Every structure is written in structure tokens, then in C-alpha cells.
Amino acid sequence: MHIPDGFLTLYVIIPTFIITIIFWIISAKKTKLTDQQVPIMGLLTALFFAAMMMNYPILGGTTAHLLGGATIGLIIGPSAGCISITIILVLQAFLFGDGGLTALGANVLNMGIIGIFVPCIIFLVGNKLFKLKATTNIFVTIFISAFVGDLLAAVSAGVELGLSQPVFQYGLSVAVPAMAINHSIIGVAEGIVTVIIIGTLLKLRPDVLEKSPILGKLNMFQKKKQTMEE
User: Fold this and answer.
1) Which of 102, 97, 107 is nearest to 5 (CA)?
2) Most Cβ neighbours (<10 Å): which of 17, 30, 57, 150?
3) Following CA atoms 1, 153, 52, 6 in sequence, which dihedral angle do they give, to the nearest 10 degrees?
4) Which fold has domain 10-221?
5) What single DSSP character describes residue 218?
6) pLDDT, position 228
7) Contact by Cβ (8 Å): 30, 47
8) Angstrom distances, CA of residue 219 to CA of 11, 71, 94, 129, 132
9) How many CB atoms lie within 10 A of CB 160?
10) What's the pLDDT tens digit per position in 88-132?
């Protein structure tokens, strides 16, 4: 999903950078991590830095790979998640040439904003509507959140590329379906990985998830807090 230099027109580069800069400013102001969350952020950043490096080229797009946005966003919050993904993309662009600097705004928009904020919003809406209590329901909502976030991030990349003709050789009719089809498959893997990681933390370190701006709103944690207060 990393878009390299030379694939986007200025008409796409400038707006995506503007949107991304706005989110960088908001994320920098809103990110508040506890001493316990800081090492978790570092571990997740390192984990998905490696995961994103395992990608393969696809027709009508750039590359397809695991994203990790839902996992990072749900555990440490979307603002910190945006910063985490930004760090990953900057390092990959500078150290490995994976993704371009001129396309950094677009890549962060796709993977660090859409790929993170969308899963968090879906999960919060699902929790509010269905009052998630059962572990199965929680995991189903997490899976759907991760799948949709990954898919929409890929579609966004396809739209940016398709709108960049003639700099990019494929139009919307090729770029968008290619990204969507491939990431529909990867989205399933994304959902499974997200469920496994959060499920493991829920079992072994629920205290970490209690501090999450997103997962900490689960009814099971709210009831636990009320019990402790009483």
C-alpha cells in the first residue's frame, strides 16, 4: 500500500499533505500515554514496522501488506496510533525506500488516519449500540473494525493513484478494484491478527487495555471500575 515517489500528481499530493498535517497537529496535542502505554506503543510500532516490510506488488496499485492500524489504534488510541504509523512510514521511506517522501502525506492519510481512525470509530459505535459484554461479540466487532479499516485504507490509496493519471498509468477503474480485491483478502488476515493480539492482552494483561481510550470504554471495564470505586 506504500505509494512511492513519482506516482502522484500535485493535485493529490498537496490536499493529502494538508489533511495529514492537520491530523498530525491534533494527534500531537491529544496524545497522552501512561508510563505503561509508552513501551506498548514502542512494541507495536516495531512489530508492524516489520509486518509492513513483508509486502508484494499488485497490478493497478503499489503493494499489499498487513497494516496494523486497527491493533495500534484500539490499544493505544487513534492519536498515538497516527504518530506510531507516521514513525513507521518515515523510517521505511528513509531507510528502505519503501514509500516516497512526496507521497508521505497520502501514505499517512491512508494507513495512519483512515486505517486507524475508522476502526476506532466503528468499534466505539458498535460498543455504544450493542453494549458489548460477551467476549465473542467484542472479538467480532474488533474483526469487522480491522477488516473495514484495512479495506478503506486500500481503496483510498487506489483513488489517489487513479486520480493521478497520466503520472500513474492506471485509472480509477483499474487501481481501485485491484487495491480493494487484494486487501479484501488481507483484511481478513488483518482482522484475525488484531483479534489474536487484543485477545492475548485481554487474557494476560487486561490492565493494559483498561488504559486504552478505545477499549477502555468496554462495559466489562466500566463495571470493574464501578465495583472498585464502590
Assistant:
1) 102
2) 150
3) 30
4) Arp2/3 complex 21 kDa subunit ARPC3 (1.10.1760)
5) S
6) 46
7) no
8) 45, 19, 42, 12, 6
9) 27
10) 999 999 999 888 999 999 999 999 999 999 999 999 999 888 777
Look up residue 61 and give its DSSP letter.
S
Sequence ranges of the domains in the chain: 10-221
Q: Per-residue pLDDT for 1 more than 90?
A: no
Predicted local confidence at residue 61, as pLDDT: 53
Which residue is listed with cell 478505545? 214
Give the Cβ contact number of residue 68 at 10 Å. 29
For the chain, give the mean pLDDT.
Answer: 89
Contacts of 4 (CB under 8 A, 6+ apart): 62, 97, 99, 100, 103
Q: What is the pTM of this model?
A: 0.91
φ/ψ of residue 16, rounded to 5: -70, -35
Query: Rounded to whole angstroms, how far apart are CA atoms 182 and 57?
Result: 10
115 close to 70: Cβ distance less than 8 angstroms: yes
Neighbours of 170 (CB within 10 A): 17
Say how many C-beta atoms besides its own lie within 10 A of residue 189's C-beta. Answer: 16
- For 46-66, the pLDDT digits (tens) are 999 998 888 777 665 566 788
Amino acid sitting at position 126: G
DSSP sequence for 55-112:
-EE-TTSSEE----HHHHHHHH-HHHHHHHHHHHHHHHHHHH--S-STTHHHHIIIII
Q: What is the largest CA-CA distance in the chain?
A: 65
Strand partners, 64: 56
Distance set, CA 151 to CA 3, 124, 216, 225 (Å): 16, 18, 25, 35
Identify the residue whose cell numbers are 464502590: 230
